[in-house]
Inverse folding.
């Protein structure tokens, strides 16, 4: 059941990241958004290229930011992976894994202070089986965001590593959204990751004094969920405020 919960939270991460990116792109020019997220885009694009090479696909017309108004990272339209079915899944999986690994590394070197303040907080490891259990899970998610804000505010902002950590984590978590043309592969990749984690967890279970694979991954998973939920709530509030201002000044008609 824990691995089913992990798969669920991976779905939350991917689609929350996609929602935040689209909200930001609706507020300012997409080119500006993608320029701000450049470090995360670079990591995701490197993972995408590696996926193409591993599956025998074609690496062509690949750029970090397009020259058109979208400013999206450009990926090849006809990559032709030689491995059917598994190829597109692997191509979509590696950018997510690359961003997740980068979040872990950055957290260990720059974010230990914030993570230490969030110690003890975790997304639920069991999925609700009844409707009555859904509401406590939602309340716990809001509490998790609150703990993230408190931990961040209590950090040392006179240290450049805190600013660098916050910036890089925002870039990397949002860039866990599927790259253009890889959405269906990303959905398959999430379920493959859940299955692979379950098999690896059974092969390397936790022992006394030595945490298992899931125990090591859960803090990073929790932190990523907290960051993206906070960004989503903040983005929705800003988007609503902008819409209200436009209505008040007659620039947009209410529907």
């Amino acid at each position: 059941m824990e691995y089913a919960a992990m798969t669920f939270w991976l779905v939350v991460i991917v689609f929350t990241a996609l929602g935040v990116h689209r909200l930001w792109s609706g507020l300012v020019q997409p080119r500006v958004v993608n320029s701000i997220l450049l470090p995360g885009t670079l990591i995701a694009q490197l993972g995408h290229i590696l996926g193409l090479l591993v599956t025998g696909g074609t690496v062509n017309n690949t750029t970090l930011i397009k020259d058109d108004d979208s400013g999206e990272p450009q990926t090849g339209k006809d990559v032709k992976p030689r491995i059917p079915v598994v190829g597109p899944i692997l191509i979509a999986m590696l950018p997510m894994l690359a961003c997740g690994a980068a979040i872990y590394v950055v957290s260990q070197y720059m974010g230990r202070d914030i993570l230490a303040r969030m110690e003890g907080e975790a997304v639920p490891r069991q999925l609700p089986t009844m409707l009555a259990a859904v509401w406590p899970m939602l309340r716990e998610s809001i509490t998790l965001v609150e703990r993230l804000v408190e931990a961040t505010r209590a950090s040392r902002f006179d240290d450049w590593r805190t600013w660098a950590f916050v910036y890089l984590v925002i870039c990397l978590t949002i860039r866990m959204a599927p790259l253009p043309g890889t959405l269906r592969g990303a959905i398959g990749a999430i379920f493959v990751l859940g299955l692979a984690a379950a098999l690896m967890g059974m092969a390397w279970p936790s022992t006394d004094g030595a945490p298992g694979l899931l125990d090591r991954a859960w803090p990073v998973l929790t932190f990523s969920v907290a960051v993206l939920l906070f960004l989503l709530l903040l983005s929705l509030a800003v988007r609503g405020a902008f819409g209200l201002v436009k209505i008040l000044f007659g620039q947009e008609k209410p529907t």
Summary: Residues 206 and 212 are 4 Å apart (CA to CA).
